[in-house]
Design brief:
The complex is a heterodimer.
Chain A lengths: L5 H17 L3 H17 L5 H20 L21 H37 L19 H17 L8 H9 L12 H9 L5 H33 L6 H32 L17 H4 L5 H12 L9 H19 L3 H20 L9 H20 L3 H11 L12 H5 L2 H16 L3 H4 L5 H19 L12
Helix pairs in contact in A: 1-2, 2-6, 3-4, 3-5, 3-6, 4-5, 8-9, 8-17, 8-19, 9-14, 11-12, 12-13, 13-14, 14-15
Chain B lengths: L4 H15 L5 H24 L13 H13 L2 H18 L6 E3 L5 E3 H8 L6 H9 L12 H13 L4 E7 L2 H4 L18 H11 L2 E2 L3 H5 L16 H15 L12 E9 L2 H5 L12 E9 L14 E5 L1 H4 L14 H9 L4 E4 L7 H11 L10 E7 L2 H4 L10
Parallel strand pairs in B: 3-4, 3-9, 7-8, 7-9
Antiparallel strand pairs in B: 1-2, 5-6
Helix pairs in contact in B: 11-14
The chains are: A mainly alpha, B alpha/beta.
Chain lengths: ~475, ~400
């Protein structure tokens, strides 16, 4: 089930809201939210709910064991563990169990096929193809596993560090992990961010209206901007050969698609959360207005970049262990961040590309591009980010190479590629592309714009919702890009 | 110790910036009411308009859930009543097609999978074949993307009975009329990058190939494809039938010619692509097109019929059936088998199934053979016609050692 679908918007959401608000007590509302979240998640594949339930159970128990000095007690501790204090063997084992459980799940479901394919490629290269594993099962990637495992890990790690108390209620914890607004494509909500909201939160008309307006704008971003730009990108990235202009148009269209798709989803997630009284942190901060790659990563997918910073970069030493170690840490974080997005060498190279650029900017120091006027700094950053998106979007490495060749006019476009001119330059496509560009660089963020909801702004949100709903019906099944991560 | 600062700042930011919204309570209530009302309007109107809802899913498997969701949407009044109006605006004002149709120039429409098969990677590319093999939904049977095993199996089965196989891939509309879609000059015919490789393979296997693309792309007074339909015009079909008859005649035993005669008739129809756009009934955007068909009739004036005793069997899809079957909306008696029969002066047998050109006609032949109806008895040639795009998107399942 996806947010931008007939079933979710016209049936699931109204029914869920009715049941949620019919419950008088917090526990009842959490029960409804948890059950609805499992139904939402299980719609794609019912078996995957068992995986999520298993992961949730392991982490719930691990956190309790850690909190009660190695004993399993089904109640919340009075205080968090002493931050930085000693930990017993049992507590360490509990953390390791959580880490292995989550990372093992992620590793198996996400990287098993990748490992098998690379193994087979290697043995073939070495002329030992009879050692290949041909009749091996192909593993299906559960939706959102990258998100909920990271989310759940943040909980057990924070409990271990003493930064938060473990939850005594399994229902509350299951509600936190499975919460459908952010389950399948983030934002990755740290437990610390909403621990107090799970215990107590307000439900007001103002929050509901703000949530509805964010959902409307998020849906509009997805349906009116991301999807049409995605159609342009699909045409170019699916083509065997391209003229350079078509290739650049398709690449820019993909840049808009992935931004509006993901930020639109995040807006909808924040909006849905608000309707339930939750306040999730911002996930995007106009990333294409960044003036450097470093700044880009302070504006793009904030929940992931801060997670990697706090749970990987800083524990590795961050920038505290000398210059060389800083670059190694940066590279490692970006490489793993790339692989988090997908089990393919494309994503590894995408992460490496950004890692190299981040290291280079660090070496050059802040203000390295101060001589350039601001628009040029933004344009240069956008160009570099775009080039990295080739690796992200192309179906495999050879396709990415072909696309780069098309971009720079190295490859001769085939006769059939001329047909693309009839597909890419239709008025509808160009209009959506133009509006996407305008919104990217001139419009205020939905997050800021809805802080003050005047009557004209509410009317604009209502109109956006109506237009988006109508357009949605013409588009067929349109999952969010980050569902596959 | 890790500072809680960074994410705490984001949490505080969220609480500060989301926790308070400057909005008048009445306006907030009104908007919230509108929001919920709009979402509830769809199921409410579905009930009020006395439209049905689908039955709940029969099981909790992915296929059942997916089917339920699809049916829920298809049966919605939004799709039935509102969507055609919206599509009308999108197409007329913004030149937008839909998931199945690209809008071309001068009122022409193109089937998306056909165009994508031309612009996409080679259908015999190993990576493409592997991707197609692994793709699809979890509840559907995996496709067999490579046409070569199917051709080889059919060829072997026919050769064992002394029957020659000739493959006839009909090019997509955009391959012959790219000028009606592209905004840059391009010369027809166009083709998928793997076509030459397939032609070489067919030659190595001893399988005949009749490629009508150069013939159709040759200069002609009139278009070779219908403007708003997937299929070729009667003149284009006849041109191909005449050339094919010339090539096949030496393979057939000489005998007295059958005295077919032809009668010209005008037929008007709205193309299948225009129907796929699901515009409102009576939309003036794509009016009917009128063509002249040449119906083939027997000496006594009775309509042409396929003859199971014929030496030639045509396996085909809708390109064979158009102008022959009423349900395609372009008249009867002037399809590929009829015109081929007319130009040969010989009877022709036919098994043609609309859609699924990669396997449907072969499956129909296999079913007949399995039920004891030997459609290959007395045959010298089998012509296997299919839409060229099937090479890139079709399911070329192999039917054992029989066709």
């Amino acid at each position: 089930m996806v947010f931008s679908s007939h079933l979710f918007l016209f049936f699931f959401l109204p029914l869920f809201l009715a049941l949620y608000y019919a419950m008088p007590a917090r526990a009842g509302r959490h029960l409804v939210l948890t059950l609805a979240s499992y139904a939402f998640y299980g719609w794609a594949n019912p078996w995957f709910t068992l995986l999520m339930l298993g992961s949730t159970t392991i982490d719930y128990l691990a956190a309790l064991v850690m909190s009660h000095q190695g004993r399993l007690r089904f109640r919340a501790p009075a205080e968090p563990l002493a931050a930085g204090g000693p930990r017993s063997r049992a507590q360490k084992i509990a953390l390791v169990v959580s880490l292995c459980g989550n990372l093992g799940l992620l590793g198996f479901f996400k990287y098993f096929n990748f490992a098998v394919d690379n193994y087979n490629g290697l043995v073939e290269l070495l002329g030992m193809s009879d050692l290949g594993w041909r009749e091996v099962l192909r593993v299906t990637l559960p939706l959102g596993i990258s998100f909920y495992t990271f989310q759940s890990l943040s909980y057990t790690i924070d409990v271990y560090r003493g930064e938060t108390r473990a939850l005594g209620s399994f229902l509350d914890f299951a509600c936190y992990v499975s919460m459908f607004p952010q389950l399948v494509a983030g934002p990755i909500v740290r437990f610390s961010e909403i621990a107090d909201q799970l215990a107590s939160r307000t439900h007001t008309v103002e929050k509901f209206a703000r949530g509805g307006s964010l959902l409307a704008l998020g849906l509009a971003k997805k349906v009116l901007l991301a999807n049409p730009c995605g159609a342009i990108a699909d045409a170019t990235f699916g083509a065997a050969s391209l003229a350079p202009l078509d290739a650049w148009l398709g690449l820019a269209a993909y840049a808009f698609q992935i931004y509006f798709d993901f930020s639109g989803y995040s807006d909808m997630a924040v909006g849905l959360g608000l309707m339930l009284g939750f306040m999730f942190a911002k996930n995007f901060d106009s990333p294409y207005r960044a003036q450097s790659i470093t700044e880009f990563w302070r504006r793009w997918h904030l929940s992931l970049s801060t997670w990697l910073r706090d749970y990987l970069y800083i524990p590795l030493g961050g920038s505290r262990k000398g210059e060389a170690r800083t670059y190694v840490n940066l590279a490692l974080v970006m490489l793993l961040g790339g692989l988090w997005h997908g089990a393919a060498w494309n994503f590894f190279l995408w992460g490496a590309f950004h890692g190299v650029l981040l290291a280079a900017e660090r070496k050059l120091g802040p203000g390295w591009n101060a001589l350039l006027p601001r628009p040029l700094r933004i344009a240069a950053t956008f160009l570099l980010v775009n080039l990295s998106w080739v690796l992200f979007r192309a179906r495999d490495l050879p396709a990415a190479v072909d696309y780069f060749r098309a971009l720079f006019g190295v490859a001769e476009p085939s006769a059939a590629s001329s047909l693309l001119s009839g597909i890419l330059y239709q008025p509808y496509s160009l209009l959506c592309f133009g509006v996407a560009a305008l919104v990217t660089w001139t419009a205020p963020q939905a997050w800021d714009w809805t802080r003050r909801l005047t009557v004209p702004r509410l009317a604009a949100c209502a109109a956006s919702l109506l237009l988006a709903l109508v357009a949605m019906e013409t588009q067929g099944y349109n999952p969010f890009i980050y569902f596959i991560f | 110790m890790t500072s809680p600062g960074p994410y705490l700042h984001r949490e505080l930011q969220a609480k500060r910036e989301l926790g308070t919204t400057a909005v008048r309570p009445a306006a907030a209530a009104l908007f919230s009411g509108f929001f919920l009302g709009l979402l509830l309007a769809v199921p409410a109107l579905q009930l009020a308009l006395d439209r049905s809802f689908p039955s709940l899913p029969q099981g909790l498997d992915r296929g059942s859930l997916h089917q339920f969701e699809t049916t829920l949407e298809e049966q919605s009044w939004v799709v039935a009543d509102l969507l055609p109006q919206v599509q009308q605006v999108l197409t007329s004002v913004l030149g937008q097609g839909n998931l199945q149709v690209y809008v071309g120039r001068d009122g022409w429409l193109f089937l998306r999978p056909g165009v994508d098969a031309l612009t996409g990677p080679g259908f015999l590319d190993p990576a493409v074949l592997e991707r197609r093999r692994r793709g699809g939904e979890g509840w559907t049977v995996p496709v067999q993307p490579d046409p070569r095993p199917a051709f080889a199996a059919l060829h072997r089965a026919l050769a064992a009975r002394g029957i020659r196989l000739v493959v006839l891939p009909v090019p997509d509309k955009a391959a012959i009329h790219p000028e009606k879609l592209a905004r840059r000059a391009v010369e027809a015919p166009l083709g998928n990058p793997s076509r030459p490789e397939l032609a070489r393979w067919l030659d190595q296997q001893g399988i005949g190939l009749f490629d009508p693309a150069p013939l159709l792309a040759a200069p002609a007074a009139a278009p070779r494809y219908l403007a708003t339909d997937t299929h070729w015009t009667p003149e284009a079909l006849d041109r191909v039938a005449r050339a094919l008859a010339r090539d096949l005649a030496p393979l057939l035993v000489q005998g007295p010619r059958v005295g077919w005669h032809e009668r010209e008739e005008e037929v008007s129809g709205q193309g299948d692509l225009a129907r796929m756009l699901e515009l409102p009934p009576g939309s003036p955007l794509y009016p009917e097109q009128t063509v002249t068909v040449k119906r083939v009739l027997a000496g006594d004036g009775s309509p042409w019929r396929p003859d199971p005793r014929a030496e030639l069997l045509l396996l085909g899809d809708s390109f064979s059936n158009v102008f022959s079957r009423e349900d395609l909306g372009w008249g009867t008696g002037a399809g590929l088998a009829e015109r081929l029969s007319f130009h040969l002066g010989r009877p022709v047998d036919r098994i043609a199934v609309n859609a699924g050109g990669a396997h449907a006609s072969r499956e129909a032949l296999a079913r007949d053979l399995a039920s004891g109806r030997d459609r290959l008895a007395g045959k010298r040639v089998v012509v296997y016609e299919f839409a060229d795009r099937e090479l890139a998107i079709g399911d070329w399942r192999v039917l054992g050692e029989s066709p």
